[in-house]
Amino acid sequence: MIIDDFVQIDEKGLYCKYGDFYLDPKLPAKIAVITHGHADHAVSGNHDVYCTRATANIMQLRYDRTAAKVFNIVDFNQPFTLGRITITLIPAGHMLGSAQVLMEYEGTRYLYTGDYKLQADDTCEPIEWVTTDVLITESTFADPEVIHPDPVAEIQKINAIKTNILLGAYGLGKSQRLINLISTYAPQKKILVHHRIMPINAIYQKMGVVLGPHQIYGRKLMKVQNEFVYIVPPFTFDSYIRATGVTRLFASGWKNLQVNQRDTLFISDHVDWNDILETITRTQPQQIWTLHGDGRHLKAHFNNDIFVKLL
Length: 311
Prior knowledge:
Blueprint: E1 8-10, E2 13-16, E3 21-23, E4 31-33, E5 46-51, H1 53-63, E6 68-73, E7 80-82, E8 85-91, E9 99-105, E10 108-112, E11 134-138, H2 151-156, E12 164-168, H3 174-185, E13 190-193, H4 198-206, E14 215-216, H5 219-222, E15 228-232, H6 234-239, E16 246-250, H7 273-283, E17 287-291, H8 296-302, E18 307-310
Parallel strand pairs: 3-4, 4-5, 5-6, 10-11, 11-17, 12-15, 12-16, 13-14, 13-15, 17-18
Antiparallel strand pairs: 1-2, 2-3, 7-8, 8-9, 9-10
């Protein structure tokens, strides 16, 4: 039997009272199951954290001593229990170490996706599928008008840009994926990386991820037109608004973050409309509960075929 209040949102975030834990809490919690290392899902100051090794490494890099009181490292597909709930972390494909959270309670399965993607990405574990009774899905791009283009075709666009490129990207997850894509599909480009991204790259490489050739940024290098691609985090990208001698691009799935009227780089680490429909087909839920976006399009699409609830 599906329990309508199996998870609820309170001031700290998504709470499961049946196991007394939070999923990706927004404020520090006593017990937190954290899906991945992005700051909007992994805050500092929790007491007990359950997550993958990669997520713990990233949180410890970012938060140092305040990352968590206790890290409980969980391998993918290795069940553990909190209260009477059996929990299993399933690869989500969003970034290195990202996990879906399968929760089993009194014979019913609830799958919290966290952030996830279906597109191929050599810098993280590919998504894996499990069936569920309730799919608790992010709905960032749950709109029939949003269809993400092929990331390889997007990256190959930069082959036609002969000037140096200033490439804005989120430092964790997206930057590492871009290094890998550029080195594979635009190998003549010489990749420079902002110093704040390099420690994250080191975690990826220590965990066996092959990013591709890159080096730390040097000011003298960018003064020469030699097909350099300088990857920078958003705050640095915004501060270089008047930069000359470069083509400015921002790699994102959001239209409002595209900054060049002639050249765009639509690369997203979230599911689009078709991906969500594919996920529903694969997981076979009786109900869909939506988070982090607008679930109204899903509700209209399935009408009475599948119950859709907006959390």
